[in-house]
Amino acid sequence: MITRRDLLKMLAAVGVGSTALSSYAVAESFGEWVTPYSLTPPGWTPGLRLRLAVLADLHVCEPWMSVDRVAAIVDQTNSLKPDAILLLGDYVVGRSLRRLSTSVVSAGSWATALGGLKAPLGVHAVLGNHDWWDDPSVQKRRAGPTRAGLALQAVGIPVYENQAVRLQKDGQAFWIAGLGDQWAFRSREGDDEIPPSKGFRYQGVDDLPRTLAQVTDDAPVILMAHEPDIFPEVPDRVSLTISGHTHGGQVRIFGFAPMVPSRYGLRYVYGHKVEQGRNLIVSGGLGCSTLPVRLGSPPEIVTIDLGGSGGEV
User: Fold this and answer.
1) Region for 240 from its dihedrals, namely left if φ exceeds 0, alpha if ψ lies in -120 to 50, beta otherwise
2) E strand or H helix at 303, and its extent?
3) Separation of alpha carbons 104 and 148, rounded Å
4) Hey, how many other C-beta atoms are within 10 angstroms of the C-beta on 64?
5) pLDDT digits (tens, 9 = 90+) for 222-263
6) Vertex 290 angle, CA 284 and 296, to 5°
């Protein structure tokens, strides 16, 4: 359950957001938006050109994110011809939206659809907070494995929890590092949508130092982290951090989002952020949380072209 105050905030935003609602309806009619980024971050290997496709926050459930819609997203993503595909977590629906959905989709069903993703350098996944919160037994024992993680592994998609893998394109190396989720366990009973700024605290399974200790050379590092809140702690050694979780605010009116699940508020709500030369891209994601509404933040597939014409940022 979300708080009455938060629900009123969201409903108020919906009430004044008819223009944004129209934009979302158009996005739904013509498929997911593709949001492209092009940059050459500091520390990037000269001449290494890499295209990534990023999918975040599917929150699969009927009728809003059906298996058929996931399959269509898979086809659209494959058509973008990425070198690698990154899945940023929150594959399952949260408690609040589950109560409104017509049926919950099994992990095996949505994972099988995601198993159709194809890229020369593979598909790489991390888990999100809802993937950990989905199973009461996981919460009770304070440890995985999770249903979501097992389902992804069963279709051949590796799931990283504080792990790094070295890949090569055209003989030039780079690393993909996957951080464990920062909100894996609730420290007390509460709504699964209320951020820590409201007084709730979460225990994570993230270990950034251990993750980066696995990087054994000076090839550039791409960090996958479901929640963007880790970004202030990310060192210069990481060329690019990629996150989801915030849904771009999900309800955003003239750039303002009344509810952002981050202790930093709007600081990392969406898009390309540069702080002290370090780069972060936050995807707006694809699904919904709390309510089946997206205003001013349409569902998106993100593409990131690294080492292209975007110049160093």
Assistant:
1) beta
2) strand 300-306
3) 13
4) 20
5) 999 999 999 999 999 999 999 999 999 999 888 788 889 999
6) 40
